[in-house]
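Q: Predict the bound structure with hypoxanthine.
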Amino acid sequence: MLNLNAKYRNTVETVAKQIPFEPEICIVLGSGLGDFAEKVETIKSIATSSLPQYPISTVQGHHGFLHFSKYADKKLMIVQGRIHFYEGYSISQCVLPIHIASKLNCCIIILTNAAGGVNPNFKPGDLMLASSMNGINIKKELASLIGLTSLEKRNSFLDFPSKDLSEKIRKASLEEKILLREGVYWLTKGPSYETPAEIKMISKFGGDAVGMSTVHEAIYAASIGLKTASISCITNFAAGLSPQKLSHQEVIETAEMVKKDFERLVKKSIELI
Ligand code: HPA
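A: Predicted complex:
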């Protein structure tokens, strides 16, 4: 079993030396949603390229920064520049931002992502709160990360998503009058987008949105006792559900379109936490 404490001691210590405060809420920004970091007061930004052992984010729209910021009197750690499987990174590398947040005593994690809409009622531009997740295809990697040594840890994913945190996000959507869908986020590892046949299967099995991140971060966060929820920005119809060819450009463009609502939803959620 991997020992993240040992593997990333140096990384955590390098961050800990520079932080202006211990963050209360960690927000991981998904593809095209990185601008949110500029919409709150930044106190200190740490380039992830300056951190020992921190993977380099190679994806367009993912800047590599850990921002220590403030909004509504809350202390935030904003992760700009997610690390993905499809870039060739391992699960322990992908969950590093969550590990760092937990080591800085942060207890609340809001994960965000861009996702393809599988549910026929969803359209590009919709926001979706995850009611549950499917990570069936990463169980092996998760076992090596979380281990099977503790029954408590094995059961802890049952606490995802945090009811309390989800309720605050729902309340925020009502107060801001933003339509918030709810559904199952389904992880595919990439590296390419899904085939129409894969989407058909995911749909039959109850998936509402599909994406290449978040689930392992959520499972890891829940396993170490952090309150966690996830918000997806539906950026496109999943493969085969529209005649249009799927592209990262479309993902970025739709995220751009929805970023004002996204910002209002996340800001109001922070206020209510
Ligand atoms: N599939 C996988 N990941 C995604 C998609 C998609 O359709 N859209 C945005 N991220």
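A: The mean pLDDT is 92.
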